[in-house]
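Running this now, will post back.
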Amino acid sequence: MSTTLPQGQVLVHLDIARALEQIGDEEALRGMLPMLQEMLERDLPLIGQRLADQDVRGANPLLHSLKGCLPIFCTPALCEQMAAVEQMSKTGNGPEVGEAFAALSPKLQLLQQEVALYMAQH
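Update: finished.
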């Protein structure tokens, strides 16, 4: 389910209704979204670099942290894809996990943009 912001932008991956259900209120959500934003800004490049270096073991804890955080804020489809990539990082080889993350990464980058947009408008 997508959310439309006051200026008409549509949120594809950030699920505000779901987040409010789990967090409780708008003020708490505004307090937690910067943590998600910081995690995405910090960890996405690190994951990409570690997978480019074939360091799946080093990428796994970062993928695991994201997997744990996303269900609070995101659509089920994004959470499922994130969980699949994180699970693959436990047993998969570097190229396989790298390809899976490469397919997921644009969605996580869009999520990062959506979080920034939402925070700017609220």
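The domain at 3-121 is CATH 1.20.120 (Four Helix Bundle (Hemerythrin (Met), subunit A)). More later if anyone needs it.
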